[in-house]
Amino acid sequence: MNLDLIVFLVLLVLGYVFGQIAEKRHFKSIIEREKALRDVLCFNERHIPDLGPADTTLVAGSVVVSIDYFKRFVAGLRNLVGGRMNAYESLLERARREATLRMKEEARARGATSVWNVRLETASIYKGARQDVGSVEVVAYGTARIPR
Amino acid sequence: MNYENPEIPEGINVTPEHPLKEFAVLLVGVSTAIVVAVVALSLLAGYMVRFVPFAQEQALASRAGTLWQGVVLDEEAQSKQHYLQSLADRLSVHMALPEGMTITVHYVDEPTVNAMATLGGHVVIFQGLIDAVPSENALAMVMAHEIAHVQHRHPIVALGRGFAVALALSSLSGVGDGMMQQWLGSVGMVTSLSFSRAQEAESDLDALQALQQEYGHVGGAEAFFEYVMDGGHWLEPPALLSTHPGTEDRIERIRAFAREHPAVNPKLVPLPTGM
Q1: In chain B, how many domains are there?
Q2: Which of A26, B52, B53, B161 has the fewest Cβ atoms nearer than 10 Å?
Q3: Chain B: which residues have CB within 8 Å of chain A?
Q4: A111–chain B Cβ distance below 8 A for any pair
Q5: What ipTM goes with this model?
Q6: pLDDT for B179-193, tens place per residue?
Q7: Which domains does chain A have, with CATH numbers?
Q8: Burial of B28 by CB count in 10 Å (0-12 exposed, 13-18 middle, 19+ buried)?
């Protein structure tokens, strides 16, 4: 067996083990923090309803997250035959929720109780000429309402 | 109006399927597809390359750098080469070579226990092989085996297949990234390794028939393979990775042939002195 193949298999195993650990840990942390920040409400309505005197400010949260070596290989195989991209689905789910959480954390730090006109934007980060998606950035932003 | 954020249940966007299951299904599926495609392509290439005229093959061989090019043989080596060539010529008579096909034997004074047939009807015999065989019959078995390779045009078939597989695999370079290609390449190579085992068996059979006609029996033909089994000078790779059939199988085939063609008075011809 050649050395390249051994290195490849080792990377695959490492990617799988650490990727699974990282993902489980991340989801656990997301669920906990979402519970803690449940009282900061988020809405996608453009107009803030008149709920009494308040200040407003822009709040944003962004995250860049990557899939592991194992999932990238599976996604590469999946690319050949088509179908549901499970590897990327969980990646984007984590990125969206993490970005929203960071936005909420900023809103809470400013004393806001709700965020309005929330928007999410996604950008994939390409690696050179191969155009394969390694990591994504998700930005969440909105207008925080701070009761006076 | 009452504003609230309802609690969203977990797992809407994440599939419950285990990632290893998806991995296994995809890996087996894609690998199978590649193996089938490479086998089909290489069989096709091997079939078509037989239509290349032998003269073209010789021209190709003369352009390629070879082991014997520029080697000046001394008098002793020349006489050995001369003997080997005459042995090849005697055996060729029984082997029904197609018109225009010639066998050129090259003697190489190296201890490697090996012989090989390459493009253009060139057969290379190493001194190590001559040292390893007890009789001319055993040497003739190996020689006839190599001539049979040339007769069936195995060298150019191997080249054609190898070229087609390499071309196909390199054309996959647009698919996936580095590690994907590495994987695809490895799968393709495994396919090409086990090809010529049938060719080896075919050559063994033709060699035995040539020996039967030349000496009237096939006694001593298995001597070289027995040497390989006992000596261990030949590092035998595992069966899957080897292009040659297992040595035991070959000895068994030679004995079966000998049983079917019983000899009246099997006499072994010794190697000429000075070999």
Answers
A1: 1
A2: B53
A3: 1, 3-5, 7, 10, 13-15, 17, 19-20, 22-23, 26-27, 29-30, 175-180, 182-183, 186
A4: no
A5: 0.76
A6: 566 666 666 555 544
A7: 3-147 (3.30.110.70)
A8: exposed
